[in-house]
Write a structure and sequence with these properties.
The complex is a heterodimer of chains A (352) and B (498).
Chain A lengths: L1 E7 L7 H23 L4 H13 L2 H25 L8 H18 L5 H19 L1 H10 L3 H21 L24 E2 L3 E2 L1 H18 L1 H11 L1 H7 L3 H28 L10 H11 L4 H21 L7 H22 E7 L2
Antiparallel strand pairs in A: 1-4, 2-3
Chain B lengths: L3 E12 L2 E12 L3 E5 L6 H8 L7 E6 L2 E3 L4 H6 L2 E4 L11 H5 L11 H11 L15 H14 L4 E4 L8 H17 L3 E6 L2 H7 L2 E6 L2 E8 L5 H9 L16 E10 L9 E9 L3 E5 L6 H9 L6 E6 L2 E2 L5 H6 L2 E4 L14 H5 L8 E2 L2 E2 L1 H14 L16 H13 L5 E5 L7 H16 L3 E5 L3 H7 L2 E6 L2 E7 L5 H8 L5
Parallel strand pairs in B: 3-8, 3-9, 6-7, 7-8, 13-20, 13-21, 16-19, 19-20
Antiparallel strand pairs in B: 1-2, 1-4, 4-5, 9-10, 11-12, 11-14, 14-15, 17-18, 21-22
Helix pairs in contact in B: 8-16, 13-14
Classes of the chains: A mainly alpha (352), B alpha/beta (498).
Chain lengths: 352, 498
């Protein structure tokens, strides 16, 4: 009698993740089309409209890329944390706390050089994100508390804090009862490239390269990989696994916090509950689809930004914007399933 | 009169290419205490797992109460009265004693639970109340509950897999009395598995010995059998090696002074006043059944464990307070017993794993050079003829032998002055073992001081210049290699010193 077992492939295909992403995307477009057909819409028309209105002009392309910034930054944070095999579900909260930190520093300090001020505020955002994950990091390192639970729950605390701030101490009297903090002055707006695209996108490119270097080319990244692979091996190699875990978590939170800062300084210009539209959660999808590769996160982040814009614009012709969400989620499922077939093979085992 | 309650014929069970059980004949007498002796991996636990229906043998037959059982499963085995206490307890920690004892639907004391519990508490001298949670009990008490569970489930045949491994000497004595009472008063048939000679002589009435999956002796009367005879049966004959031991010894490289480790955490074995030293060009073999402190000793010398008493001196420097990296810098290499999990990180690439020892040599400040890493891996692959997949593939895609070659190559390529090698060839095929032995000898000839921890006497006799036997955390005996033989080493491993 012969048995069949699953075994890991010995040959690694560098493009496996990319192929599985394409397969996932294909499946997602197919399912999206079926849903559109059920609604008596022509999928080809709808999709070409989405493409046209999201990347068809410099203007729309800029909007798409602006939407991609928080997805990419938070996704990179998730990917860094995953080097030690941890999941950051708290990017959403970290985005909010990043923005809150920016506003806190903004209303309490006065720096007359606006470039310097902007840099200080961006750093505050990064630190804000790190502070947001501080408690999960401490409980993880010292007591082994599951970070998935703690980072997720921190989101609710931070969003609660945001609601409190914009309805209470920070409430802008001029906002006509809309719960929001006062606008920041235009001296700290992030400059734009050709009028629309935020210079945050350049920061994004910089941080993508930085995250790639940190993960793949640095001693720290190596130590994170070993610590994530086996705590005992880290101990054996003289690597302080707890320290690496701690820093990886703070970095992860910081990246998402920076996303919040950029959102505030280039898009919303004030703290409100609308700082993030679920970017922290979508970033998890982006990071997972790409197998946690920084470059992939950058590309898929851009695509998902465009999808979000595309979803918004088709609302105007009466198609639900949720079609974009459906495509994002199905791409993830499709990609993960096909990744499985790229990394495993079915082997025949002879008995006896 | 002796009545057979259970017997097996020609039981064969294979795992992959390894024959765990090879035509095993075995039998049990009603109401007797049987000893089953053998080294680790001799097949004792596999046989017990077959009898309790967990493993299905490929060949052979099992008779219980003279009835042939064709398809034994755990449920059926339990109905037929066979119960087993595994080395790892199977209790629900968050349940009370009572809930654990009455968990199975097979339990026979439902209405008269209190009465039965009081009776058996006395037999086991268990002082805990039956409402206490199992998680609050000591290891010894948990084991009592495990054995009581068999009684409550009406198991007439009780298979106890190394029950004394977790017990203190006092608890062991207590267990002996309890088991004797059970066999006399309740006519329980008991199988007592161990590799400790002293215990098998004290506990049992008749002894079975296994080696390499075979039953090498059956039904030896405990009263009349000699220790030497049991050791020879258990260990087999050891071939004397052809490797010359007359190489030059140099100065002392490693000195261990009065190392002690208290047994305070579960899962750790204690060490008690260990003193040893190894010279350049010398192989010191550490013999002993696993779990007698070998892993702890190796981890203390390499710097992984920090909470110990005593001194570690490497090349004249006291490094007791120093960490792993400082000891590596003094040219110490450690090949841990646990290949995948300690020596190599699972889920991480072959390339990453190949530089665990010296990754800082591939770095410029915070930058890690992939090129240097790849060169290093290629060097290892060439030097130690490792059959490897792509560098980026996961380490687990390598075969066991190649994994071990990569690990040993990584630790040996820089010609370390001190080498701690724990079970370097366990579970590998003959050709891999031979290659790794040659590596160790060539390191010895280059002047390394080598500590070789092994359970394989062949290997120890072949490679060592001197032998130390660890038993329950102590050096129970030291041998020069030409005065060591299976008998005296085997007896020392079993805790017997004449």
């Amino acid at each position: 009698m012969n048995n069949y077992i699953l075994s890991k492939k010995t040959v690694v295909n560098d493009f496996a993740t990319f192929y599985s992403f394409l397969i996932g995307l294909f499946i997602a477009i197919f399912i999206g089309s079926v849903i559109l057909l059920i609604q008596d819409q022509n999928p080809i028309n709808i999709f070409s409209l989405m493409i046209k209105l999201s990347v068809g002009s410099i203007n729309s392309l800029s909007s798409s890329l602006n939407k991609a910034i928080p997805l990419i930054l938070a996704g990179l944070g998730i990917s860094i944390m995953n080097s030690v095999k941890l999941w950051n579900i708290g990017a959403e909260g970290q985005i909010f706390l990043g923005a809150i930190a920016v506003n806190l520093i903004y209303i309490n300090t006065e720096i007359y050089n606006s470039t310097l001020f902007i840099i200080v505020l961006l750093i505050s955002g990064f630190i804000g994100g790190s502070i947001c994950i501080l408690l999960p990091a401490i409980t993880k390192v010292f007591f082994g508390v599951n970070e998935i639970i703690t980072t997720l729950l921190t989101n609710y605390i931070i969003i609660g804090l945001t609601v409190y701030l914009v309805n209470g101490p920070w409430k802008d009297p001029k906002s006509l009862n809309f719960p929001a903090a006062a606008y920041v002055g235009d001296e700290v707006y992030l400059p734009t490239i050709n009028g629309k695209l935020s210079s945050g996108f350049l920061i994004c490119i910089l941080f993508t390269i930085g995250a790639y270097y940190l993960k793949e080319k640095s001693v720290f990244g190596y130590e994170m990989r070993i610590a994530g692979g086996s705590a005992m091996t880290a101990l054996y190699a003289g690597i302080n696994a707890k320290q690496k875990t701690f820093y990886a978590m703070l970095f992860g939170g910081g990246f998402a916090g920076l996303a919040g800062a950029i959102e505030l300084l280039s898009q919303t210009h004030r703290v409100s509950i609308g700082i993030s539209q679920g970017f922290g959660y979508t970033a998890i999808i982006v990071a997972a689809i790409t197998g946690m590769r920084p470059l992939g996160i950058f590309l898929v982040g851009c695509l998902f930004g465009a999808l979000t814009i595309g979803g918004t614009v088709i609302q105007t012709i009466g198609v639900s914007s949720y079609i974009a969400d459906i495509i994002q989620a199905t791409t993830l499922i499709g990609a993960l399933v096909s990744q499985f077939f790229f990394t495993y093979q079915i082997k025949e085992v002879k008995n006896g | 009169m002796n009545k057979k309650i259970l017997s097996t014929q020609n039981i064969t069970k294979t795992f992959g290419q390894i024959k765990a059980l090879d035509n095993v004949d075995f039998h049990l007498y009603r109401g007797k205490i049987h000893g089953l002796l053998g080294e680790n991996g001799a097949g004792k636990s596999s046989l017990m797992n077959v009898l309790s229906g967990i493993y299905q043998p490929e060949k052979g037959s099992i008779y219980i109460n003279n009835q042939k059982q064709n398809s034994l499963n755990p449920d059926l085995a339990s109905k037929l009265g066979i119960g087993m206490v595994h080395q790892e307890f199977r209790l629900v920690e968050s349940f009370s004693i009572k809930d654990n004892l009455t968990l199975s639907k097979a339990n026979i004391y439902i209405k008269d639970f209190e009465e039965a519990f009081n009776k058996y508490s006395k037999i086991f001298s268990l002082s805990a109340n039956h409402d206490s949670l199992v998680s609050e009990l000591s290891v010894g008490e948990k084991q009592k509950i495990e054995i009581m569970k068999l009684i409550f489930n009406n198991n007439k045949i009780m298979l106890l897999d190394e029950p004394t491994a977790v017990l203190t000497p006092q608890e062991t004595n207590q267990l002996k009395i309890s088991l004797e009472t059970l066999s006399k008063e309740d006519e329980k048939t008991i199988v007592f598995i161990t590799h400790k000679l002293k215990e098998i002589k004290e506990f049992t009435e008749t002894i079975f010995v296994m080696k390499n999956g075979q039953m090498v002796a059956k039904d030896l009367k405990t009263k009349s059998v000699k220790d030497e005879e049991l050791v020879t049966l258990m260990m087999g004959e050891v071939t004397k090696s052809a490797i010359k031991k007359d190489n030059k010894k140099g100065e002392t490289k490693l000195k261990v002074e009065n190392i002690s480790l208290a047994k305070n955490v579960i899962g750790f074995n204690n060490l008690d006043g260990i003193n040893l030293s190894i010279k350049a060009g010398e192989v010191l073999g550490i013999a002993g059944v696993s779990g007698n402190g070998q892993v702890e000793l190796a981890n203390i010398i390499s710097g992984i464990y920090k909470n110990f008493e005593g001194k570690i001196i490497i090349k004249g420097q006291d490094v007791s307070e120093k960490g792993v990296k400082a000891r590596k810098k003094l040219n110490l290499s450690y090949i841990p017993e646990n290949r995948l999990g300690v020596g190599l990180a699972p889920g991480v690439s072959i390339l990453d794993n190949s530089v665990v020892k010296e990754y800082f040599n591939a770095s410029y400040g915070p930058h890690l050079s992939t090129k240097k890493m790849v060169n290093y891996l290629n060097l290892l692959v060439k030097e130690f003829s490792i059959k490897t997949a792509e560098p980026k593939a996961e380490i687990s895609t390598l075969s066991g032998g190649n994994m071990q070659k990569l690990l040993m190559g990584r630790e040996l390529i820089s010609s370390p002055e001190i080498i701690i090698a724990a079970q370097p060839t366990r579970g590998l095929d003959v050709s891999a073992v031979e290659a790794l032995h040659e590596l160790i000898i060539s390191q010895r000839n280059k002047g390394s001081a080598i500590m070789l921890i092994s359970e394989d006497l062949d290997e120890l006799f072949k490679l060592s210049d001197r032998l130390i036997v660890l038993y329950e955390g102590k050096i129970i005996k030291e041998f020069n290699i030409n005065e060591a033989n299976t008998n005296n080493v085997g007896l020392a491993m079993a805790g017997v010193i004449e």
